[in-house]
Every structure is written in structure tokens, then in C-alpha cells.
Amino acid sequence: MLERLDPQKASLAIFVGATATIVGAWIFQFAGYDPCHLCLMQRWAYYFTVPFSLLLSLSAGKNPKGAGRGLYILALVMLGSAIFGAYHAGVEWGWWAGPDTCSGDISGGLPDLSKPVVACNEAAIRIFGISLAGWNAIVSAVLAVIALAGARHQGSSSVSQ
After folding, report:
1. What is the Cα–Cα distance from 152 to 147, expressed in whole angstroms?
2. Are 49 and 24 in contact (CB under 8 A)?
């Protein structure tokens, strides 16, 4: 199935998947699940990917090679997002320590009362046993694979006239 993804279809699939993911994060935030510092940083990849994938999808018909190169960029961005999501999930599971700024510890002085203190080492919610950071790692990895498949698409080998 992935071999059928030309750059335009892959870009559109990434646009839809990335948009749904970031909108889902906003819905959880609106529902009262405040994001931590690492959660907010994980959104950066989506803030780049959503408009970039839309532009690639719109331009792929006229410039499939350029769209293919753009999909390689998206694959790298989403791979980085997957790694970052896995790192954050590992912090939540206690497999390794997170940054000092994410512990919710206020021992260094008075807390900033204008912001909620949200610890990065505690999952706000788990869905099927996986935190939102873990889901970000999974979704990002899937989007990276889609981007690679679209970038590697060779097109039709026969020329019709």
C-alpha cells in the first residue's frame, strides 16, 4: 500500500494526520489536561509539518521532484518528533531523568504563579496504557514512514502519449 503513495498523496496524508494530531492535543488541553514544557516542545514539529505538508501537496502536481525532497525533510522532522516523544514517554515511565525545568520542583525560589506547574515526569492521561507523549512517538513515526514512502515513489515507468 505504501508503494502507491505518490508525493501528492503522501503530503496530503501527512497534512491530515498532523492536523488531526495537533487538534487532538488542543482538545485535551481545552478539556483540562494542561501540557508540560516537553509537551509544548513536541508540538513544534507539528506547527512546521501542517503548513509545509499542505504546501507540498498543493505543489506536488507541478513539481513532484521538489515535493519528494520536501517529503525527505518532513521524514526527518517527524523522525525527530518520534524520538523526542519516546524520550518524554521514557521520562514519564521513570526510565531516565528529564530536564530539571520539568520536575515541577520549586526549590530554586518562588514559583511563577501565573502558570500552572505541570511536571513532565507524570503522564496527565494514558490511553490504552500509552501516554500522550507515547502516542506522539507512534504517530510521528507513522508520519515519517509515510513521508519516506512518498519521497521514494518512482511514478509510472511507462510514458503514455
Report:
1. 9
2. no
